[in-house]
Amino acid sequence: MSRAGAVLTGSLGAAAATLGVRALLDRTTGMGDAARRWTRVNHRGADISLLEGPAVGAGLVAGALLGGGGGRRTALAGALAAAGGAAFGLVDDLSEDASRTRKGLRGHLGALAHGELTTGGLKVLGIGATSLVAAAVLHGRPVRGQRAGWLGDVVVSGALVAAAANLVNLLDLRPGRALKAGAIAAAPALVGAGAPLGAACVGAAAAALGPDLAERDMLGDGGANALGALVGTAAVASSPRPVRLALLAGAVGLTLASERVSFTDVIARTPALRTIDEWGRR
């Protein structure tokens, strides 16, 4: 399959799977306790569904596998990263004990340091592990005599995938914000070896954007972590080592900044970011 064909297949496959799974979930959750379990309150105080999250996660996995023009390893790595982000994010979405919530990466890591495993801490460990596995798959087997370099590449790439998963999740605070950010961040990969993965991100985001902007659905941790993880995998597949190191430094810097600075406030004070952020909202 040509790269153009892989991009088209990945984007359309991701969009179709996202829409199909979302419709299926709407029928199967029905009403009552099942529906309430998937309902949250948004920043306006209105009820909103979390079903977008697993739908987007399924769409990303499908798009990564269908857009196999980037190679079998790339497709498998993308599917693993997205599935890991979706699975551990959903655990946090559905199982978190609100009375013991720890906020932010620092809070969850602090709880781990004191022997307390929060659902957020489990998510950090789980996504970190699946990101490393995805990176190892993407880089292939180490060449004899170059195992140290291979290991370094896997650690850097895995850290970048996990950091991207966390960053997109940090942006899921307003309608459409995380979906827009994920699609924009994935766009540069469309000209590289990770093009099918980037296309899957764009396709799934486009399919979910309407209900998200209308404040009927939200990504939640499951959808946002999955989207960010696939964006990170697409970047790894498309970038040489120096670029991956630079991207990781930027992602870590933004993550640390988020502990002290509100991204929402920064966006509101920056005209260009504010325009993109507000586009399409009610």
Describe this structure in words.
- The chain has 13 helices and 2 strands; from the N terminus they run H-H-E-E-H-H-H-H-H-H-H-H-H-H-H.
- It is mainly α.
- It is 73% helix and 2% strand.
- The longest helix has 27 residues, at 3-29.
- The radius of gyration is 18 Å and the shape is globular.
- It has one domain (3-278).
- The mean pLDDT is 88.
- A two-stranded antiparallel ribbon has the order 1-2.
- The protein starts with a helix and ends with a helix.
- Helix 3 (52-66) packs antiparallel against helix 9 (195-213) and helix 4 runs antiparallel to helix 6.
The helicity comes to over 70%
Enumerate the spans where pLDDT stays under 50 for 5 or more consecutive residues. Answer: none
Average predicted local confidence, pLDDT: 88
Could you tell me the number of beta strands?
2
Our Rg estimate from Cα atoms comes to 18 Å
Shape, principal axes of CA atoms: globular
| Secondary-structure class | mainly alpha
What is the element layout, followed by pairings?
Elements: H1 3-29, H2 33-37, E1 39-41, E2 47-49, H3 52-66, H4 72-95, H5 104-113, H6 119-139, H7 147-170, H8 177-186, H9 195-213, H10 220-238, H11 241-258, H12 263-269, H13 271-278
Antiparallel strand pairs: 1-2
Q: What are its keywords?
A:
mainly alpha, 73% helix, 282 residues, single chain, two-stranded antiparallel ribbon
Q: Quick gist of this model?
A:
By secondary structure, this protein is mostly helical.
